[in-house]
Amino acid sequence: MNILLTGGSGNLGSRLIVPLVQRGDRVVIFDMQDKPFIPSAEFKQCAFVRGDLTDREAIVQTVQDEKIDSIFHLGAILSAQAEQERDKAWTINMEGIRNALEAARLGGVKKFIFSSTLATYGSNLPSPLDIDSPMWPQSLYGVTKVAGELLGVYYHHRFGLDFRAIRFPSVIAPRGMLGGAGRFTSEVFLEAVEKGAYEFYLRPDSSIPIVYIADAIKSFLLIHDAPEKNLTRRSYNIHARGVTPGELETVVKARLPHVKITYQPEPIQTAMVDSWPHSIDDRHAREDWGWQETYDLERMADEVIATLQKQKDSSHE
Question: Which residue spans of the chain are classified as CATH 3.90.25?
C-alpha cells in the first residue's frame, strides 16, 4: 500500500513510519523538513517530497504521481506556537487540511486519517468527557482541529472519502513535544534525567488525560486498518488514564530517588489544566476498532526513563 504522511518528519510522523515500513507499506513523506524528529533506519527507506501544505498543486501532484492509497494528515502548527504565530497557524492548519482533502478527492485516495486533539472541546468539561460534548475550543489550535474534522466529515458525505480522525490527549514520550499547558507529562521525565530536578507549574493534584506514544502510534494503525463497516462515527477519542503531577513525582522518584521535585503553580496554566477532564469516554474506539492501551503509568515511566538515560549516556561517549 502506498501511504502519504504529511508532516512525516515530525514527532508523530517519524515514529509512525517505523511500523508502516516494517509491515511492508511504501511510505511517502511530504514535509518541509528532511531531518526526522526521531531518526530511524525506516525513515531512510521512505520517499521524501519537500513540500508546503499551503501549496495545493504540490500535494495534489504528489498524491497522483505516487499513486497514494491512504493519507495520514499529521502536518500542523501545534498549540503553543499557534498562539504565538496565529496567522501562520491559521494558514498552515486550515489550508493544509483543505489542500490535503482536495488532493485525496482528486487522486482517488481510499482512506484519510486525521490527527486531532482533545483541545477541540475547550474547558470546564465534565469528567468523564462524553465524546459528543459540545466543542468550544479556547485555543487557535483547537479551533483549527474542529474545523478540520468538520471539513473531513463534509468530504465524506459529499464525495465519499473514507475520513477518520483520532482526538489525542496529552501524549507522553521521550523527547516529546514540549509545548502547551500539558507539556509537564513528558517534560518531567526529560528534566529529571538531564538536570536531576523539575519544578511543576501546577498543583500536585491537578489532573490531565494521557496516552503513551507507542499506544498513540498503535491507534493510528488500528483506525486505519479497521473495516469501514465497523465504524459508527468519523471522529474518535482515546486515552489511557488520567494522571496528576503528584503521581508523576511518585513514579519518577521511585526510579530516580535523587531527583528534586518542587511545585510553583502558575495561575493561568493551572486554571487551564484544572478545566480539563480527568478521564475520557473512549468506548467507541474500543468497540469499533479495538483500541486498548498497553502501557500503564509504571511501564510508561520505565520506558521513558530508560530511553532518556540511554540517549544521555550515548551523548557523553
Answer: 172-210+240-280+295-315
